[in-house]
Amino acid sequence: MAKPKVAAVAVLVAVALISGCGKTRKEFERQLDICTVGENNGVLTAAAEACGNALDIARQHEFPPEEISDLSYRLGQIERRQGNFGEAEFLVRASLDFEEQVADSAGVASRRVELAISLAGQNRWDEGAELLTRAAAHAPSLAGSERKDAMNALRGYAAQAKKQGDSETAERFTSLALELATE
After folding, report:
1. Quick check: 90 and 75 in contact, CB under 8 A?
2. Is the alpha carbon torsion for 94, 33, 38, 45 positive or negative?
């Protein structure tokens, strides 16, 4: 007689878990929508909060690693735009680690560029220059805003190299930026 009760409880638990997963995904999507609206309207504090909430949900509920990577990257970009370079570095590094494991060349290049920008914001030019050099091989695979970010980062690093008296690096970065602009 106890077996039907156990089965009924198991079914109820399964239904609750399934419906909870739907609610979790729905809340995740809601937070992403808020993040997008915040980004599009320049309300970066709200965007970062909502994106952070979505990232917490994704981690807690073991969403696919590529979703977590993309969200870490996106939140890193938002944090960088707010001047929170250390937090941006942490988030983008986590995303870069994943992208390197799956060998997504465009993903790796975009994350290296973003990380270089965050490092520049922390006055860590040498580290950033190394990342940009490593990103250069895959930079032609970038498109849209990621390509524009790469060109701007290369130009900024070229200016910094010139300021430090490293004309060879300055010329190399300037040349790479021009290549991206003309392709």
Report:
1. no
2. negative
Tens of pLDDT, residues 91-119: 999 999 999 998 877 899 999 999 999 99
Check: CB of residue 132 under 8 Å from CB of residue 153: yes
Block residue for tokens 């970009």 = 77
**pTM for this entry:** 0.83
Are the beta carbons of 111 and 99 closer than 8 angstroms?
yes
Per the listing, tokens 């309207």 go with 41
Six token digits for residue 172: 């190399």
Q: What are the pLDDT digits (tens) for 146-173? A: 999 999 999 999 999 999 999 999 999 9
In angstroms, what is the C-alpha Rg of the chain? Answer: 21
